[in-house]
Each structure stands twice: as C-alpha cells, then as structure tokens.
Amino acid sequence: MPSFKPKDLAAIEYHGASGITQHCLDAVARLIHFGDKIYVAKLLTCLDRHNCGDHGLLLTMEHEHFVAIKPGFSSGYNGEGPTGLSTVLRMLQWQGADIEEYDVSPAIMERLNAGCLLSKDVDYLELAKPVLPVRYYDYMLGSHRDLQRYFPPTINFGLLDKRLVDLALNFPENPGYAIDSAFKRLEDQIRRRIDMPGESGSKLLTKAFLGEGSILHWGDENPSEQSSKANLFKSVFGAYRNPRAHREVAASDDEAVREFMLVNSLYLLEAAAVARKPNA
CA–CA distance from 97 to each of 16, 38, 41, 94, 151 (Å)? Predict the structure, then answer.
C-alpha cells in the first residue's frame, strides 16, 4: 500500500518508459517536434557509490506546465543509456532550454520511475540548489551534429489543404501513391476551374495562370509576382510530377514528405486564385 494519498500526487504528465532509453529520447523529441517550448529542464540524478547514475527529467513547459521524463538515461559507463543522455542534453540545449541538474534521493527516483511524484517532491526541487559547479557537461559524449535525425519526417496536418487530408492519412503506407494522386487531383481541379478538360501539363498551367490574359490570377499589383507564381506551378510539375509520370521514382522518407508539402503549397495557391473579370 502506498504511504501517500492520491491528493498528494503532483499534477504532472509522464512520458517515456523507465529503463528504456530510446523511448525517453523519443518522448523529448516528440515534445519539441510538436512545437512545445521547454523553458527549464531539470536533470534529476541519482548516483550510486560507484558514481554510476540514473537520470530522469522534469521539464517546465509553457504556463508552468510540468512534464516528467522517466529515468531511461544513465551515466558512468559505456552503453545506450549514457549515449542517450548525451543526446537528450544536446537536444535540450539546441532547443534553448535552461538545463539544471539536481541530485535526488533513491525514493524520489523510485517515485519518478513509477510515475507518482508527489507535490512535496516538486516543491523540494523548486527550493533545492542545482549541482554546482555544473556537472552535466561531463555527460556529453563528443558532438551531435545531426540532431535532426531524431525527428521523424512527418506531415504537418495544420498546414494542409483540406483536399489532401485523406491522402496524408495514408501517406506512411504509400507515399508514392499519395504524391501521384495529389498532382492528378490538382490538374483535375484546374481543368474544371478553367473549363478545359482536354488540356494538361504545361499548356494547362500556362492558360490558367501565366500572363495578363490568364484565366485565374491572384490580384498581385506587380505582374512579375503573378508570373512568378505561375512559373512555380510549371517548375514543380516539371521537376517532380513529370518524372513520376514516366517512371518509378525512388524517394527517401524525408524527400517524399518535402515533395508532398511542396504540392500542398500549390493547392493553397490554387485555392487563393480567382477568375479574371471579362473586361480585365
């Protein structure tokens, strides 16, 4: 039976899995990837008599919201735990968090491990003095030049044109199909808008957008801006859609996401275009 009551528990979110470094590293990456701002990262350290440590994190987010990362990191020996600790510290530095280290008792680490920190634990950490001189630099193993690889390529649904949502939902299973379908849908939409069912490719885009006699426009004061947007359609179709129309295109996950979001930009431009008035 616990020696505390539920009302004694701190109002904290818990992420990661105790003892599993990758889960804890992924948890921090997800927070940053989603756009959550981490202001303060308290590195909670529990050292044994051989100076080997277990480490967790207590993160202060926006609006004084706390997120705890369970103790999946370690130090004092070679292995995945120390490497993960080094990486997460570099990641937090990269994100701009203020890192402070605190030595904590085995009892606090045990409660963090179980996902049941108490309000008094948080109060203790608010009043405790961080480890000085700064020690956490000793946990950093070399440099981490490629931190971005810990952030998986994903589609930002908040930026998507709603006409692409269904393709985006199935994108991980078949990115090539999603990209091909996105280009085809866009051509179909432009054909319908300018009432030219037989046109395609560069001719279709020219008649739709290019020049002062184009059927659609964006109301730009400078004609060169209209021309640049029209040529953006032609360039993207020429560089990406046309190769896909003639052969299988192998693309990495990163490349596929970037291409899909590039097509999405064309959708948003097409949606913003309006028909020219007959006397324009």
Answer: 19, 6, 6, 8, 17
Question: Which residues of the chain does CATH 3.40.1530.10 include?
Answer: 6-150
pLDDT of 142 higher than 90: no
The candidate with the shortest Cα–Cα distance to 267, out of 173, 174, 188, is 188
Tokens linked to 134: 């700064």
C-alpha distances in Å from residue 18, one per residue of 106, 122, 124, 206, 239? 14, 19, 22, 58, 47
- Tokens, residue 114: 């179980």
Tokens representing residue 266 in the block: 């064309």
Tokens of 105: 């008792």
Residue 76 has a CB neighbour count (10 Å cut-off) of 15
Assigned CATH for 6-150: 3.40.1530.10
Alpha helices in the chain (DSSP H): 21-33, 80-95, 106-114, 119-127, 165-169, 175-194, 201-209, 223-236, 242-246, 253-272
CA-to-CA separations, 166 to 129, 150, 171, 176, 244, in angstroms, rounded = 51, 26, 9, 14, 20
pLDDT in tens, 41-87: 999 999 999 989 999 999 999 888 999 999 999 999 999 999 999 99
Neighbouring-strand partners of residue 73: 55
Burial of 58 by CB count in 10 Å (0-12 exposed, 13-18 middle, 19+ buried)? buried
